[in-house]
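Allow me, if you will, to draw on your knowledge of protein folds for a short while. The matter concerns a single protein, recorded as an amino acid sequence and a row of backbone structure tokens. Could you please explain, in whatever detail you think fit, how the structure tokens follow from the sequence? I remain grateful for any guidance, and I place the record below:

…
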Amino acid sequence: MVKLSVLDQSIACVGRSHGETIRDTIALAQHCERLGFERFWVSEHHSNETIVGTAPEILLAAIGQVTHRIRIGSAGVMLPHYSPLKVSEQFRVLDAIAPGRIDLGLGRAPGSDGRTAYALHPLANERPAMFPNDVRDIMCWLSGEDLPEGHRFRPIKAYPAGDTVPEVWLLGSSDYGAQVAAHFGLPYAFAWFFADGAAGAQAMQIYQSSYKPSERHPEPNSALCVFALCAETEEEATYHFQPRARFRLQRDRGIFEALESPQTAMAHDYSESEKFRMKQLQDAAFVGTPDRVAERIEALAKELNIQEMAVVTWAYDEPVRHKSYELLADAFGLKTAEAAE
């Protein structure tokens, strides 16, 4: 059966402080560890009123202190904003906090608009062209291997050293990341939920067919990140999906807002075309009873030869989100922490 993981984006909700949102992410990581999920990843976005997780490396340090088994990581660090050496040092520190449990997911996109990207790094809009070289440097610094002969930073080492090494993943929503991941022999995760599946099948085909085996990863390791929301009934799942559908309508207009309650989201006066679009969004996501959602996830994984699925779930009410992951874990037969012991 396909491995099951979690992506959390620290979503702002109307009537809830951003501080509470960040603390909810930490609590969800503990919850998902108890349920038996493989990994728990956090995202990086900037100047976004909806997604307020801006510093995954800090959030992961907190999560590492309150979890014990689950792998934790970034999905991802937006590399154009940062020095590869600094990223390597941050994740070596994280590996010291949670040895052998750290994933470093790297993205080439800015995770923001052009002006915000410039504020984060004046060369951020030029650095994507350097992405493959930066990935190579990070792989060397994380593992303690030498940089290539002639590299001007060859004498520099990333500390703290350790017996374990963070696992590098490349992330993307286009073919480019798939090609870079295949070249370096790295795991690759495609943001299926972000692109509504567009180009996902092609990206995975390119990744799997052009994969160059590496010592750590002799076989390609493919993952998709999908949106899923489970409830006891289809009607309940549809109800709790409405804030996400409303957000997507607004996002298409360039408007980013805190997530509304289901009642508020449903109370807006929608045109027929907007209602149709919201239904399309629900059909594209994995929303419904746990057995039905699990069936669709497994079918997609089988169709595209995917080894792992990362699930992102938005819900206005935090207990609804916790329950959704519980139902999905049960549908996939995951072992709880108590059962594993």
